[in-house]
Amino acid sequence: MASSGHRRQVLLFLVAIILPCVVLVALGLRMVVQERELSEKRVADGRRSLTNQLRQELSARLDRIALEEATTLLAQQERPTSRDYANPFVIFVAGVTNEHLTLPWEHDPRAARFRRQLDREEFAGFVNRGERAEIGSGQSGEAVAFYASALAAARDPAQAEYARLLRGRASLAAGRRSAAFRDFASVLGSSVDVVDEHGVPLALYAASRLVEADVQREAVVDRMQRTLEDPRWLPPTALYLLRDLVERLGPSSHSVGDSTASALAATVASRLESTEQVMALQRDFPRLGLAAGGLSTHNAETRWVVYGASPWLVGRSAPLGGAGDVVVAVRADTLLEAVESAVSDSSGTPGDLMVVSDETGDGELLGAAFPGLVVRFPSAAGISNDGWDVRRWFYLVALLLVLSVTLFGAYFLSRDVRRELRVAELRSRFVSAVSHELKTPLTAIRMFAETLQLGRSSDAETQTEYLETIVNESERLTRLLNNVLDFSKIERGKKEYRCRPDDLADVVRASARAMQYPLEQQQFTMNVEVEEGLPTANIDRDAIEQAILNLLANAMKYSGSSRQIGLRLRRADGQALIEVVDHGVGINPGEQQKIFEQFYRVPTSDNDGIPGTGLGLTLVRHIAEGHDGQVTVKSQPGEGSTFVIHLPLEDGRA
Ligand code: ADP
Predict the structure, then answer these.
(1) Which residues pair with 357 in a beta bridge?
(2) What confidence score (pLDDT) does residue 360 get?
(3) Ligand 1 within 6 A of 261 CB?
(4) Does 587 sit in the ligand 1 pocket, CB within 6 Å?
(5) What is the DSSP string of 206-237?
(6) 480 C-alpha vs ligand 1 centroid, how far in Å?
(7) Mean local confidence (pLDDT), 547-564
């Protein structure tokens, strides 16, 4: 019965609590997983949309730039050599002829003009004769005169400055230093438009002579600065010459400040760097995938490739009108920064987007129009995931709560079930113990009564002994039944104590007397000590007597081989103490609280075969507590036990 009831309970628990809980947890977990996937998708979508915005913004800007520059280029008669482009991001613009880049300085009209001017008859004649005298026969003085005539015949500034340059050189060779420096100084001051056939300003050659002679340094530096400030592209030769001059001037020249020299050096270096990159681009152009008829014609978007160490975005645009293609190179870093911050601002994303050139493709690819460019999103949290973090915590806490409540429930239920199982088992043991306990005295009573009835025992002494046994056994039976009845009353909450002031010494002595015969029969000696003069106590006399008898009966049962029992009444701390002392088997410390539980019997081999119901001490405790007192035990296994009933006294004095 009991076990099927428990099975039902467990089943009910499983069906009503565990099952829904498992379903709930599974659903919760699924929701968490789905939410996470959704949030990841949202992040990916966000990234894709940002990448699209970046691509569109970049494309739009670059297309605008390309169109603007191509239009400007085509509107000009001559190929422009200016580095001042309409858009500040542009580094250079070049035309494409037969798949070859025409660099800005390659078709300098001034250089072409210079060649023609030198070839004019009269001027060329004097120059030739001068050169023959100077180089051919080493007649520097004569050469000076020819060059002076050439100067006189000069019709334009280019011829004049060239003649001065030659005359200066010849004067220097002839040892006429001051005359030479005058000529060089004059050329140094000439216009930037006076360039030789390579596009190198003649002033730079004069500067070189002056630096070599270590004169007029300030004028030279000033001239170099002016040359670099000119908005036109300088051909590489001019830049190499400038670098050479900077090096020869030295960093700590006495007349030129350190900062001026280093600023000059830095400007020359950066100009050279971009010029060399332009030349490299010209070389690499056929390999860049920007050929006409390439991707750009299939695709509406212009293709932009990343090029160079300090990267440029290079694109080719075919302006309408078929006037030839134009290649535009744009400074990548500053333009990308501008695009990044524009997109960050418009999309409300914190500004940690980054467009980088990365061949490994670690990031979102910017698109086919920008090969090699990827967008990096250093912080995933930067893209809204709609409070997913908060929700995730909420789900986890809720799940944990459900789980812990269920586990708590399961724990308490299983504890209750275990306790009930134990009580059920104790009860069944109790029934067999009671039957056994009833049977033993009944058999004895019946046996002695029948003997007397049949008149088999003739002498009076034996008859008295038989009668005493019958009385004794029936008293034991009464005690047992009283215990059982009282326990059942306690269980039903019906047990009442009728207390009156009474003398405890009397009660203790009466109990001792009641046990005298059974004690004697089992050869026990009982030492009774009663303190005299104790005040009365408010007690239910029968109940207290029953408690003392229970303790004495236990002392006999669990005495082992010892035959000494003590019964004491004394007073301590304003209480009456009734102590029952034995020297028997004793009780383990771990069992000393359990023995007061109903039906509990210590499961040791010592106790095997000792009859009992496990109710005696339960009643003793109930009786003591019913009198506002308590029962305590002190015991050592193998040395015996002392049970003490503490009862309040009427006068309560210590
Ligand atoms: P029982 O009918 O089994 O004696 P009790 O409630 O009186 O039931 O005692 C409970 C258990 O306590 C006993 O089974 C016994 O193991 C232990 N016990 C009680 N009194 C003593 C004692 N004086 N010495 C040793 N063990 C004792």
Answers:
(1) 373
(2) 62
(3) no
(4) yes
(5) HHHHHHHTT--HHHHHHHHHHHHHSSBPPPHH
(6) 14
(7) 94
